[in-house]
Write a structure and sequence with these properties.
mainly alpha; 180 residues
Length: 180
């Protein structure tokens, strides 16, 4: 990632920062992940970043409890989507749902993502968010179905890898909550 940072490709650098922060979260390095997230926020303020990039950053922030930061990313992502004339509202909807989940508001999170499918690259995130929101709403059967669909897909090496890897744990947690 340092090589890309030196080369100056802002989007590639940003994407690697999000992946790196996600990896640190996965191994329990939240302090280092937060430092990298802060660098990503700075980079996003200084250079044009894609709407999907803002979603990835905000989703990760919400997941690790940086709710205010995720809330601050949401209007930036919406502004970027408007500037780009982005026809795809899914990154904004998913980020909104991620913030609702972090606020423990399962009903509103579910309302934001409870439609058939998102674009292929964002569908794993929709399934993960939907499963978590359904658990909060006590809809364990639907949550298990969404988690199962996520875990049965293949996302090794893409942006959704972390959600995919957590899929089996999510299924186990849901089954336990449902009394299985």
């Amino acid at each position: 990632s340092r090589l890309l940072r030196l080369q100056g490709d802002a989007q590639a650098t940003f994407d690697i920062m999000v992946v790196e922060a996600t990896a640190y979260v996965a191994i329990g390095g939240r302090t280092r992940a937060s430092e990298i997230i802060d660098e990503g926020v700075w980079l996003a303020a200084a250079k044009p970043i894609s709407v999907d990039g803002y979603f990835q950053l905000g989703h990760l922030m919400a997941r690790i409890g940086r709710i205010n930061g995720a809330r601050e990313v949401l209007p930036q992502a919406s502004l970027r989507a408007t500037q780009n004339g982005a026809p795809n509202a899914w990154p904004i909807r998913l980020l909104t749902a991620s913030v609702f989940l972090a606020e423990r508001n399962g009903a509103d999170a579910l309302a934001a993502v409870n439609q058939s499918t998102a674009p292929a690259d964002l569908e794993p995130f929709r399934l993960a968010v939907a499963a978590d929101a359904q658990v909060m709403s006590g809809q364990y059967d639907k949550a298990l179905e969404a988690a199962k669909r996520l875990s049965e897909s293949w996302h090794f090496g893409d942006e959704a890898q972390d959600e995919w890897l957590r899929g089996m744990l999510r299924m186990a947690r849901i089954s336990e909550l449902a009394g299985d």
